[in-house]
């Protein structure tokens, strides 16, 4: 993409309304714009990141055998009365009355709706297990929306729901999503540690929050050092294998949010204490919805029982902010390659110069041919402005075309993470980028 | 996808609640499910079609140089007060009050919001022309939602907005989208004819509805026979050429909705009179929003003027229904290849038979390797049920594995459109499908 034909509106200084670093950097990089309290538009750069995250989540859900559906944003109050949640849910639920005086709501979550779909179509043990997921905008009417996407009101969530015949089957579904979430966050380039979470009377050991460690995290968390130093996916099984040993092995490692933390349990452990941000939550809740809503199936013996359910959520828009909280420096964002809006930024240091223009243009075309996602900064701007913008936007690699190096038919390749630079030929830089580019 | 691991819930007879053929077939094929009046969930099969349409629209918008953003579903009433539309818009606008008693609305369209974004970031003639588009759920509180997706309340729309310095520039943006829409509908496998539409006092000749011809269409339309018999994109220019001659040539061909139809003008024409469904609308509206909302830029001479705007919409969810209305028979849907949920359906006529299972499985794996999107009907069902489902779902090709042909290592390839069948070897059928499969 040529920047002159694109739309990126960056700010050189921190906007007054932002308190946390991800919010500041997203506004400064021109990724989002607030439209009203806690409600944002996604500008082109931000949308590219959001879409990359969506693609990775979709792929990992498909790998795990989950089936994608799409439920609407608005729901009928009657459906929520069936589960008993309509009156229980507080003022965070946005309640709406339509022109026919029907009571509606903007869905904050979809347990009732997916249960309604399942009870309509699924009646026999032969039709389960099933795991349905969707990615849709949700609304929670926070009393004090703040911290940008971290606590917005309209937000994008991936939520999935498993339906099983028995508790043992439900455990298998849970283990599968546990593994799938580890894989998803790893593919997103972010370390998210599963931590035992409160689950009320039902969940038992099947309730985990996935927490990204970041200095600026919202809560205190504690975990065994191995969570930070080892790859949790080492020796991970295939989905069609028995997943229990893997689940047991990992959950035997200590990890806890402040509420669940037990200092007595960690006396002999090499413990990491850090701040964390919740980006996912999985839990088993049995027949909490299937029982009152009558989502039952006939078992092989002819008896009918409500389905066993679990739910699996990822805060998709929140993840954009969480990744920035976990990966930035004082110059700007440092994107993991898989979610970066562009894999590389091509900087022409002397726009209008015949030689640098020719070299930069040919590099740009070659990147397009090789499907390397590149932002070509072809503006008439000073070098300092282009460098600052490239660091702010945070693509993993910068390719710098300067008059001096151009004369030698060389370009500079700069690593955004550690600022290391290498002088390479055009062929070398193309081969390098083509080799390293993420495949989504 | 193996049907046994997927979720498709078909009905053999017409559901009572549906009046028009697209609604009947979408319910029968298990593409959608109504959740409340005019509000639908997309079941897996329907979602695949919707996503194919989205991908094609995205690609064609990118080709035309439009920039993707994503605006939220909920908007502030204050923004609509600036344009004067908050009080004008009738009861079709879903008005919402949040917990802080702020007046909100569920966006039925986004002119105000995109104008707000542009006035925030764009201030100079150097930064235009720009064309922004997004694809987002919208809501119109129809008094009597009916005909399934044709007149639903929550619906998916692609809407784009052009911002230009001058009227001449705005014309160029309009011509570009006119051509882009022809290309988009052609890529979707549907013929949509542009027809002069009412535009109020501003639009002039720059207001066109794109109409799909279908016996069951909602309104009467008239057009020159050439619209139906010739390829409108024949000799179409590239986007960077002068598009006016192409626009003039095509708009010189007669086409009109009933409201605009003038029998005096068509006396000597070879006229087609048909029913039609509106699937797109493009129009120029000058400074209608930029003036009151102060979206102005500095011109080269230093003076400041409001931007010239146009808007470009496609009813994305409605298109799913419109394509079915235009392309079905008494057995079910006949999908254009580019939007079909699966390109082929693989039918194993004797599930459980060692030989047919082996052949069907190897064909299925080979299709996956070659990226041929195939639904493998591996259920224990009678042949009649599988044939009926395959015709109902409407993939362009059916590959039938029968015990008799299997003995000869042959399979039957059936064309859904004309029911022609061919007996082919496994290699032949794979080569055929790989060659014909759509590339999105």
Short overview:
The structure is a homodimer of 440-residue chains. Chain A is an alpha+beta fold and 440 residues long.
Describe the structure.
The structure is a homodimer of 440-residue chains. With 440 residues, chain A is α+β, with helices and mostly antiparallel strands. Helix content of chain A is 32%, strand content 28%. Chain A is built from 14 helices and 23 strands. In chain A, a hairpin with a 2-residue loop joins strand 17 and strand 18. In chain A, helix 1 packs across helix 10, helix 2 (44-63) packs antiparallel against helix 6 (167-187) and helix 2 (44-63) packs across helix 10 (316-326). Chain A is globular. The first copy, chain A, starts with 20 loop residues before the first helix and ends with a helix. The model of chain A has no long low-confidence stretch (mean pLDDT 95). At the A-B interface, strand 1, strand 2, helix 2, strand 3 and strand 4 of A face strand 1, strand 2, helix 2, strand 3 and strand 4 of B.
Spell out the blueprint of helices and strands.
Two copies of one chain form a homodimer.
Chain A: H1 21-28, E1 32-36, E2 39-42, H2 44-63, E3 67-68, E4 74-76, H3 77-83, H4 85-88, E5 94-97, E6 103-106, H5 111-121, E7 130-139, E8 154-164, H6 167-187, E9 192-196, E10 207-213, E11 219-224, H7 225-229, H8 244-252, E12 255-257, E13 271-286, H9 290-293, E14 296-298, E15 304-306, E16 308-315, H10 316-326, E17 328-329, E18 332-333, E19 344-348, H11 354-369, E20 374-377, H12 383-393, E21 397-401, H13 403-407, E22 410-415, E23 421-425, H14 426-436
Parallel strand pairs in A: 3-7, 19-20, 19-21
Antiparallel strand pairs in A: 1-2, 4-6, 5-6, 7-8, 8-16, 9-10, 10-13, 11-12, 11-13, 13-16, 14-15, 17-18, 21-22, 22-23
Helix pairs in contact in A: 1-10, 2-6, 2-10
